[in-house]
């Protein structure tokens, strides 16, 4: 699929941007290192389509009307209306294709764990994103972890078990034994047994003066 997003220069600002949203446009801005900030507007349907398909860490080509060259950008911030889940504002960061940058990449689990399949334990996804450093064109869409080898309780995939794509490295010195995903014992719901005091309190009181039975 194409990773090009069309945009247009934006002159509408302030409270008037509400009209843009009603017209199916998302107000936004493009900025970057040694790049002048430019106010833009993008079609909400196309923006949502790209975000749904590749997430927010994928390199996009922004085609601004009236400009001859495409702008290589990353989505820096995407504001969402919590009630409608529609995008209401977007910040694009224009990158230099020859300079490395730090970016958060989603950790995705693949395969089926035998421990889960046979009810041996529960799968705990501990780390959901990893920050990596690489050139913009080398940003991985995701980091996949195969869980099909996790068969017993305490089986785990650690940081040292994954292989990053060529040219991609973690941004900080980390513990190679850090757990990314593991199998934990299945939690069993314990039914509470009422105490004798609670049972007695639940019995209806005997009316005063009532004759004893028997």
Task: Give a nutshell description of this structure.
Helices cover 13% and strands 39% of the residues. It is built from four helices and 13 strands.
How many distinct beta strands? 13
Q: Please tell me how large the radius of gyration is.
A: 28 Å
**Number of helices, counting only DSSP H or I runs of 4 residues or more:** 4
**Percent of residues in beta strands?**
35-45%
Termini distance?
Answer: 86 Å
Name the average pLDDT: 89
Structural shape = globular
The CATH topology of the largest domain corresponds to: Ribosomal Protein L25, Chain P
The level of helicity is 10-25%
The CATH superfamily of the largest domain is identified as Ribosomal Protein L25, Chain P
What oligomeric state do the depicted chains represent? single chain
Q: How would you spell out the order of helices and strands?
A: EHEEHEEEEHEEEEEEH
- Low-pLDDT runs: none
| Biggest sheet character | 6 strands, mixed, barrel
Q: What is the CATH C-level name of the largest domain? A: Mainly Beta
Strand order of the largest sheet: 1-3-2-6-5-4
Describe the secondary-structure layout.
Blueprint: E1 4-9, H1 17-22, E2 25-32, E3 35-43, H2 44-54, E4 60-64, E5 71-80, E6 87-94, E7 101-110, H3 114-117, E8 121-125, E9 129-134, E10 143-146, E11 156-158, E12 169-170, E13 179-185, H4 196-202
Parallel strand pairs: 1-4, 2-6, 7-10
Antiparallel strand pairs: 1-3, 2-3, 4-5, 5-6, 7-9, 8-13, 9-12, 11-13
């Amino acid at each position: 699929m194409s990773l090009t997003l069309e945009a247009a220069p934006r002159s509408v600002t302030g409270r008037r941007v509400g009209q843009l949203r009603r017209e199916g446009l998302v107000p936004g801005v493009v900025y970057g290192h040694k790049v002048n900030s430019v106010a833009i507007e993008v079609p909400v349907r196309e923006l949502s389509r790209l975000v749904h398909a590749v997430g927010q860490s994928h390199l996009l080509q922004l085609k601004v009307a009236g400009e001859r060259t495409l702008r290589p950008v990353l989505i820096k911030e995407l504001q969402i209306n919590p009630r409608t889940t529609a995008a209401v504002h977007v910040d694009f960061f224009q990158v230099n294709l020859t300079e490395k940058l730090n970016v958060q990449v989603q950790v995705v689990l693949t395969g089926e764990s035998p421990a889960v399949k046979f009810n041996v334990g529960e799968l705990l996804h501990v780390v959901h994103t990893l920050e990596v450093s690489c050139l913009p064109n080398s940003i991985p869409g995701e980091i996949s972890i195969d869980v099909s080898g996790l068969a017993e309780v305490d089986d785990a995939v650690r940081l040292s078990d994954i292989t990053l794509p060529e040219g991609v490295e973690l941004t900080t010195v980390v513990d190679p034994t850090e757990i990314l995903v593991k199998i934990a014992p299945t939690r069993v719901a314990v039914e509470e047994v009422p105490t004798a005091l609670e049972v007695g309190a639940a019995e209806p009181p005997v009316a005063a003066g009532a004759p004893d039975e028997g």
